[in-house]
Write a structure and sequence with these properties.
By secondary structure, this protein is mostly helical. The protein has helices spanning about 1-30, 35-50, 55-60, 70-90, 90-100.
């Protein structure tokens, strides 16, 4: 019982770490497959939409773009969902979870 509790706690602590590493790795693989012009354009669009400027003000007034704190909150939730998704799909963590949940 003690082994299962400590193992479960270790698994819960390892889940976000493994998920973050797998998410970063998949993003790097995706960026490596793109042309440099595409990457620079995406970085530019991200920079334009992340700072307050006339374009984001007009989009916010039209109701198409939330104010800045709303954007950061949504990006944070999206990153958290990606980390959990990649962590739960990890074969190493799945093997660890199966071993820890076996009854003695």
């Amino acid at each position: 019982m003690k082994r299962q509790l400590l193992g479960g706690l270790g698994w819960l602590l390892a889940l976000p770490v493994v998920g973050a590493v797998r998410l970063v790795w998949s993003i790097l693989r995706l960026l490596a497959a793109q042309r440099p012009q595409t990457i620079l354009m995406l970085v530019g669009v991200g920079l334009v939409l992340s700072f307050s400027n006339p374009l984001t003000d007009q989009l916010a007034l039209a109701g198409l773009w939330p104010p800045e704190p709303g954007v950061l909150l949504r990006v944070g939730w999206a990153v958290a969902a990606g980390v959990l998704f990649h962590g739960l799909r990890s074969p190493g963590l799945n093997r660890l979870r199966r071993r820890l949940l076996q009854l003695e």
